[in-house]
């Protein structure tokens, strides 16, 4: 693996004291003694100066490098006015849709418009446009021509290559080309943005910054032939012809070509092929770059960024965040902040490889860990700076609750491993599953002055937890507030295999162990299982069996999830192509069944909410079509009661007979 420069080792030209909050107005800039911003971050979220909000993390990291940073949060996108309120940036615009993809933020899986936005003041919707990155990039260009535009965050990261777009039901080109941005950062982004900012400050033209890991750059026009047969340069921000050879020599072991935009349009299974290649290159030890033709333009996807070291990650989280919304918002509440303001992030990344999840595509498979000391320091900061803290930490976690300090024991090959999951179909023999460091962290946090309880709000990976009964005991005894979130996702083997999730025997084993330790602790505690409806590979019969399992176990779910085909996941490639990207012979070479269309998707969701009166008619019709009328009625074995109309008709018939 490369040995990159520590992101906090760059030379700073000034020693400007950090701002109490990054400026959002000219008045704030003047109060800080600044006449301009080196970098302006445009975000679709309200600006909350907290390490759980991406704009704050990137902004504070750049500020620590000596750059003057401004924030334009949720600008009006109908014209360029809001994009000019901090003036022309000296170095660049950095654009993100925010912590969520703007389309996921706006629409449910049923394509209904959401009635709220947790990342906006008072939860009000309509503060950001659809496809926010595209809209913001357009306005930044209109505001100040010639200023480099760099896009990043979850929306850009997962659209870095040709992808299927569920909301338009079309294949779309890389968002880098659609936005006409100069550079795309994928992943968390601190290492990339710091290097890029310093190179721009050194007067290096943006078009020459082509070799940064964790970035995507536009190339010259292409005829979609071999990697060295691209057409001549077209100007603008195009890459010089020599660049591919230089990258292959210096930054990448080799360059592989992905199926092109036209290939995927012509043959949906090519999206599955592209996904398979991309997923094989997620590991931090990968040195291969990818090239993909998008119509008449190539893009170069550099290898992933090298994960931050523990020291670097500690420093990122120890930057002087105010841990509060910007004063601009006054007393207006921001729901997303209320959900996380008493939580602590202890790690990043996930090696679980669930087919429907994009965490690995964004954050990577390698677990990036904070030190115990840094975590304790942040807890002290939260106690001192976050109003309303009562001594209860709402979460000590990350993408997964129990991957802290877990890693591949094969140091020589682990970083370059191409497997999408370290735990499916079975836990890899090279994976260190020792939970002792996490247990020690929990115990240390519990002993801190003023801490009454530290809850675990992140989802527990129960197949890993079973490797450490001591962890399950610690969890059940001290860190559950009555309910623990857990995600079996389904009960049936075929959907679970497509999802790359462990089978229900594993879930049942964990449930028994959790119940045992809860009883030993003298506590009544319950698992709250999460399930997905309408996932590829799921039939209506599978959903019926899941509903019967829920009823048998007396679960009446209040919140359920319908599969949403978000860009760059394995499940989305299956949804579009009907083929499993990771196993072309899966399902005996046949297409995987995919529940498409709102009618079937709503039916699958209704099975999860079998107890809701509004779903009875839909389920009654489906059960009759399936020949399962035996499940309609008032006996305990029935899934749903007979409709009132049917009961009334039977009573009238009985009266006539009498």
CATH A-level architecture of one domain:
3-Layer(aba) Sandwich
Shape: globular
CATH class descriptor name of one domain: Alpha Beta
Number of strands: 24
Structural class: alpha/beta
Return residue spans where pLDDT drops below 50 for at least 5 consecutive residues: 223-238, 646-658
What's the total helix number?
A: 24
Strand content: 5-15%
Fraction of residues in helix: 25-40%
Q: What value does the average pLDDT take?
A: 92
Distance between the termini: 85 Å
Q: What topology, given as strand order, has the largest sheet?
A: 3-1-4-5-8-9-12-11-10
- Main pleated sheet: 9 strands, mixed
CATH homologous superfamily classification of one domain:
Cobalamin-binding domain
User: Over all CA atoms, what is the radius of gyration?
Assistant: 26 Å
Q: Say what the CATH topology of one domain is.
A: Rossmann fold
Protein architecture, described:
The chain has 658 residues and is of the alpha/beta class. Strands 3-1-4-5-8-9-12-11-10 form a 9-stranded mixed β-sheet, sandwiched between helices. The protein has a 3-stranded parallel β-sheet with strand order 22-23-24. The chain has a two-stranded antiparallel ribbon with strand order 2-13. The longest helix is centred in the C-terminal third of the chain and has 17 residues, at 504-520. It starts with 25 loop residues before the first helix and ends with a helix.
């Amino acid at each position: 693996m490369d040995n990159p420069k520590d992101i906090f080792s760059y030379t700073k030209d000034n020693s400007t004291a950090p701002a109490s909050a990054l400026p959002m107005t000219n008045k704030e800039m003047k109060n800080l003694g600044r006449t301009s911003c080196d970098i302006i971050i445009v975000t679709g979220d309200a600006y909350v100066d907290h390490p759980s909000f991406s704009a704050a993390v990137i902004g504070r990291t750049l500020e620590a490098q000596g750059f003057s940073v401004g924030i334009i949060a949720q600008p009006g996108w109908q014209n360029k006015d809001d994009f000019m309120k901090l003036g022309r940036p000296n170095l660049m615009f950095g654009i993100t849709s925010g912590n969520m993809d703007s389309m996921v933020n706006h629409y449910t899986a049923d394509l209904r418009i959401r009635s709220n936005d947790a990342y906006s003041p008072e939860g009000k919707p309509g503060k950001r446009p659809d496809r926010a990155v595209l809209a913001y990039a357009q306005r930044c260009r209109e505001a100040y021509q010639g200023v480099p535009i760099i896009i990043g965050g979850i929306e850009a990261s997962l659209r870095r290559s040709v992808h299927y777009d569920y909301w338009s039901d079309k294949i779309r080109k890389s968002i880098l080309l659609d936005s006409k941005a100069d550079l795309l950062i994928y992943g968390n982004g601190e290492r990339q943005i710091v290097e890029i900012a310093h190179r721009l400050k050194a007067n290096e033209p943006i078009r020459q910054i082509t070799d940064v890991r964790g970035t995507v750059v536009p190339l010259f026009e292409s005829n979609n032939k071999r990697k060295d047969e691209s057409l001549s340069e077209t100007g603008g921000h195009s890459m010089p012809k020599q660049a591919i050879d230089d990258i292959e020599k210096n930054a990448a072991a080799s360059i592989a070509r992905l199926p092109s935009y036209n290939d995927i349009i012509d043959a949906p299974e090519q999206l599955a092929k592209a996904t398979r290649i991309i997923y094989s290159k997620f590991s931090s030890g990968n040195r291969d770059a990818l090239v993909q033709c998008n119509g008449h333009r190539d893009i170069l996807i550099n290898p992933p960024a090298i994960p931050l070291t523990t020291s670097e990650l500690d420093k990122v989280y120890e930057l002087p965040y105010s841990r509060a919304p910007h004063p601009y918002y006054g007393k207006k509440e921001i729901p997303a902040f209320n959900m996380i303001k008493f939580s602590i992030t202890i790690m990043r990344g996930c090696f679980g490889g669930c087919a429907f999840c994009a965490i690995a595509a964004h954050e990577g498979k390698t677990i990036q860990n904070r030190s115990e000391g840094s975590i304790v320091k942040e807890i002290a900061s939260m106690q001192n700076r976050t109003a309303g803290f009562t001594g209860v930490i709402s979460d000590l976690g990350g993408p997964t609750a129990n991957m802290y300090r877990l890693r591949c024991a094969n140091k020589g090959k682990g970083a370059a491993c191409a497997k999408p999951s370290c735990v499916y179909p079975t836990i890899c023999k090279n994976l260190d599953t020792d939970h002792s460091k996490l247990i020690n962290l929990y115990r240390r946090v519990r002993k801190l002055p003023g801490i009454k309880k530290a809850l675990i709000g992140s989802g527990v990976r129960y197949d890993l937890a079973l490797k450490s009964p001591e962890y399950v005991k610690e969890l059940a005894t001290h860190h559950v507030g009555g309910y623990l979130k857990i995600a079996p996702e389904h009960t049936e083997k075929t959907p679970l295999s497509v999802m790359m999730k462990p089978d229900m025997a594993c879930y049942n084993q964990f449930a028994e162990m959790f119940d045992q330790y809860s009883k030993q602790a003298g506590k009544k505690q319950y698992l709250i299982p999460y399930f997905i409806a309408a996932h590829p590979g799921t039939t209506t019969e599978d959903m019926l069996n899941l509903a019967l399992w829920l009823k048998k176990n007396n679960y009446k779910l209040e919140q359920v999830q319908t599969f949403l085909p978000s860009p760059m996941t394995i499940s989305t490639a299956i949804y579009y192509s009907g083929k499993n990207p990771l196993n072309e012979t899966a399902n005996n070479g046949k297409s995987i069944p995919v529940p498409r269309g709102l009618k079937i998707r709503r039916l699958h969701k209704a099975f999860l909410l079998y107890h809701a009166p509004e779903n009875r008619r839909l389920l009654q019709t489906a059960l009759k079509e399936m020949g399962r009328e035996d499940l309609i009625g008032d006996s305990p074995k029935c899934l749903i009661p007979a409709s009132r109309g049917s009961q009334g008709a039977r009573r009238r018939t009985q009266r006539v007979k009498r």
